[in-house]
């Protein structure tokens, strides 16, 4: 049995914590996933995974093995890229992560266009705002929105991320329209759970900076959910323009507090190192920089 494939299967099971999930992700039967892991354990003479009815965890030997397997898989990928045919075609698989909102509103379409240019490439996109160890999870590129990206990673700016305060016309007809940030204290505000506190900051050319503690009866950990709640009339939300611009243009949401600007963030592409950057990763980086240069949002 192919030991390199067995390592790839084992590493995926270690990441997902599930034989069934790995079976679906790698398009293998669950029995074949089990056989690959068993073959690797037999080859090494050690138990790598602790299996219970609810979860799969790494043994001490499994943790040691996983680190080595990831190194060998990375080397194998480098060998494939170094010996690729000279036709210039990009091959292999790219693994990316980004937030649900940015993936939904912008990145999914961008990746579709990128793959159309490179038909022999494959992309595996994981959405979520949680912190991810790019090396351990074998992520080639993370798209994150931040004012202060992780200094341990290489950060390439892709675009500005502006935000806007929005509400549905039905909500404003019922509750009135705030004229200044302090008025938000009397409104129903929709908060992002990951921010940890409900304080919104605004800057005005004449009035300067104002920070407002807003009441939030509804919080969620993703902007898409908050956008849907605002559209349904549940309250006022602070939203990225890359997500809500079509709804503002259609009149489904209305922008509030003209002249007051929320803090601006940056959309970054993050990756572990400039050394040995795969040609496909470099091509995708250049594509995204060009794609989002001067984006209307």
Describe this protein with a few key phrases.
single chain, D-Maltodextrin-Binding Protein, domain 2, 297 residues, elongated, Arc Repressor Mutant, subunit A, five-stranded mixed β-sheet, 3 domains, alpha/beta
Written description of the protein model:
40% of the residues lie in helices and 26% in strands. It is of the alpha/beta class and 297 residues long. It has three domains: 3-82, Orthogonal Bundle (Arc Repressor Mutant, subunit A); 92-159 and 266-292, Periplasmic binding protein-like II (D-Maltodextrin-Binding Protein, domain 2, 3-Layer(aba) Sandwich); 163-263, D-Maltodextrin-Binding Protein, domain 2, CATH 3.40.190.290. The strands form four sheets. Strands 4-3-5-15-6 form a five-stranded mixed β-sheet, with helices on one face. A five-stranded mixed β-sheet has the order 11-8-12-7-13. The chain has a three-stranded antiparallel β-sheet with strand order 10-9-14, with no helix packed on it. β1 and β2 (56-58) form a beta hairpin. It is elongated and about 70 Å long. The termini are far apart.
